[in-house]
Amino acid sequence: MTDLNSDCLFCRIISGKIPAKKVYEDEHVFAFEDIKPKAPTHVLIVPKKHFAGLNEAQAEDADVIGRCHLVAAEIARQRNVEQGYRTVVNVGPGAGQTVFHLHVHLLGGRGLNWPPG
Ligand code: AMP
Ligand code: ZN
User: Fold this and answer.
1) Is the beta carbon of 20 within 6 A of some atom in ligand 1?
2) What pTM, to 2 d.p., does this model score?
3) pLDDT band for position 3 (cuts 50, 70, 90)
4) pLDDT confidence of 2, banded at 50, 70, 90?
5) Which atom of ligand 1 is the closest one to the Cα of 88?
6) pLDDT tens digits, residue range 81-105?
7) Residue 25 bridge partners (DSSP)
8) Among residues 63, 32, 64, which one has the least CA distance to residue 45?
9) Residue 96: CB within 6 Å of ligand 1?
10) Nearest to residue 25, comparing CAs of 35, 36, 13?
11) Is 50 a catalytic residue?
12) Any ligand 1 atom below 6 A from CB of 98
């Protein structure tokens, strides 16, 4: 896979240089357990292509951003949380983004407040 960034934590997880608990992989998308889960189900779903976040996404990235959400829905079904889960994309430090490789959080398995903090 090209487009990996050796300075990026999630690129290193995708390439297997840093271990992670893989949940799902296909040609375009990789998913793994969050190392500090904030809910009983907390999976990170990432494009294999490196881009920092939604602010940096291009029109050509629309497909893979959609694919990440469909993978989230499939994992939610597998874990029987489809009656109440949340997908979250934190955008920028002000929203708590700490890893600058776009990722969708899948959170489920507990009550989720609205609005989020
Ligand atoms: P964000 O704050 O939206 O950028 O989310 C980054 C997420 O990555 C956090 O929920 C972290 O717990 C998670 N994380 C950081 N390092 C690792 C790692 N090595 N393996 C799995 N998840 C990680
Ligand atoms: Zn990356």
Assistant:
1) yes
2) 0.97
3) confident
4) low
5) 3
6) 999 999 999 999 999 999 999 999 9
7) 30
8) 32
9) yes
10) 13
11) no
12) yes
H or E segment to which residue 73 belongs: helix 62-78
Question: Does residue 114 have a pLDDT over 60?
Answer: yes
Encode burial over 50-80: b for 16+ CB neighbours within 10 A, e otherwise.
bbbbeeebeeeeeebeebbeebbeebbeebe
User: Which-ligand-closest: CA of 14?
Assistant: 2
Buried b vs exposed e over 18-32: b needs ≥16 C-beta within 10 Å? eebeebeeeeebbbb
Task: Tell me, using a 6 A CB cutoff, whether residue 99 lines ligand 1.
Answer: yes
Domains of the chain, start order: 9-108 (3.30.428.10)
CA 33 to ligand 1: nearest atom = 21
For atom 20 of ligand 1, which residue has the closest CA?
35
Q: What is the DSSP string of 43-61?
A: EEEEESS----GGG--GGG
Q: Label residue 103 exposed, middle or buried (CB < 10 Å: 0-12, 13-18, 19+).
A: buried
What is the residue type of 21?
Answer: K
8 Å CB contact between 105 and 89: yes
